[in-house]
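Predict the holo structure. Ligand: fe (iii) ion.
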Amino acid sequence: MIDLHTHSSASDGTDAPARVVADAAAAGLAVVALTDHDTTAGWTEAAEAAQRHGVALVRGTEISTKAHGVSVHLLSYLQDPTHPDLVAEMDATRSDRLTRARRMVDLLAEDFPVSWDGVLAHTGPDATIGRPHIADALVSAGVVASREEAFATVLHPGTRYYVPHHAPDAVATVRAVRAAGGVPVFAHPGAVARGRVVPEETIEEMAAAGLAGLEVDHRDHDDATRARLRDLARALGLVVTGSSDYHGAGKPNRLGENTTSPESLAVIEEQGLLDVIRP
Ligand code: AMP
Ligand code: ZN
Ligand code: FE
Ligand code: FE
């Protein structure tokens, strides 16, 4: 089993990178990718754990981008983590995520017993901060019962508490990932429950810029969406991937609940600058 999309406490997962890798091995995965939001900070710890637990590791990142105002999550695999353009883009996003989280907490604090310290209590040092950390503070304060409930209510983009954050253009980021030797894959492109999704023309533009694949098998896609995206991937010559988008205890997603074929992984590894770390 190959699961190419997971999060640790380096971003908004609840478990440390080594723990995610250990749990991946225990779940019977042969290969796991660590893809924290807008950071590569978990890579070193995850690589060490992969050797120790006998599971192969794909080093990756889920980059927050935008296309025509719609949020696009772009997975980057096996890129040079020091490439200046990509590092600068992710630094800018992480910095604005901090400003944005503080604004959201200020707005929420007008109506609910939440504080910035309460949010920081749930955020790892240097972690890429996001709404899930604010959700945890809301749970601790007794405002909601779970991250899920927080996202369905006060953290939803339709509420007055929602503030967007900076994100670079999706097509430009596809090019930046390729320039860094990475392999760009569009994460959950048809996840309508999260908000607006991009039209096929945007996926075509991204493909023309060097997109390598579409994450088709993801819990946020129903069967019809998966079939449509599989057809589109075939038409555009893109690889198809699948994943759990695991966030530890922060989401119901289970490791290995959707998987990627060995053939797709072989294409990704062939195109990537870095090697898959094999025990
Ligand atoms: P942000 O990037 O700060 O806008 O927050 C988006 C993050 O929240 C993504 O990583 C999602 O995986 C996570 N997320 C979205 N919906 C939910 C939900 N219903 N429950 C828990 N986490 C969620
Ligand atoms: Zn996340
Ligand atoms: Fe995502
Ligand atoms: Fe994700």
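Residues 84-109 form the longest helix (26 residues). The first strand starts at residue 2 and ends at 3.
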